């Protein structure tokens, strides 16, 4: 029984292995990235979208990882990225979602922030319990306090 359990755990770990250092697209078989946000303002006009944050998922599944990607080239109109960091997708309690790249920290816009926010009818969602920021020198995520973090409700006023 222990052998079967070990094989099952290793199989699951293999499905969600790290892609740090990998150039994408193409993504490994069965893995896709359906959503992401360019980091623009923090880098300045000449470096728009040098870095982006995005998600990884199995086909037709919920996201399992959050990534930082550095643009390393282009193929026609498509960016080619190197994944510089990957962390587990946070648990999303009811009435929350992960907001990327449209946040304020203590009233100052910062497109390097991703945060778990609580859905309300207000223009700005407050970060609930989890927030990360991208270090643009290293291409890595680091923890920040969710206190003082708000992310824009892109559907507000519609």
Observed structural traits:
2 domains, 13 strands, 49% strand, seven-stranded antiparallel beta sheet, 1 helix, disordered N terminus, 158 residues, globular, mainly beta
The beta-strand count equals 13
Helix coverage percent? under 10%
> For the terminal residues, how far apart are their CA atoms?
55 Å
The figure for the number of domains is: 2
Poorly predicted segments: 1-14
User: DSSP helix count?
Assistant: 1
Q: Order of SSEs, N→C?
A: HEEEEEEEEEEEEE
Average predicted confidence as pLDDT: 88
Q: In one word, what is the shape?
A: globular
Characterize the quaternary organization of these chains: single chain
Largest sheet: 7 strands, antiparallel
Rg, alpha carbons: 17 Å
Q: Which structural class should the secondary elements be placed in?
A: mainly beta
Tell me the fraction of residues in β-strands, as a range: over 45%
What does this structure look like?
- The chain is mostly beta strands and 158 residues long.
- It folds into two domains: 20-88, no CATH class; 96-152, no CATH class.
- 9% of the residues lie in helices and 49% in strands.
- The protein has one helix at 2-15, and strands at residues 23-24, 31-32, 36-39, 51-58, 63-75, 78-88, 96-100, 103-105, 108-110, 113-118, 124-135, 140-143, 149-152.
- The strands form two sheets. Strands 7, 8, 9, 10, 11, 12 and 13 form a seven-stranded antiparallel beta sheet that branches.
- The chain is globular, with a radius of gyration of 17 Å.
- Mean pLDDT is 88; it is low at 1-14.
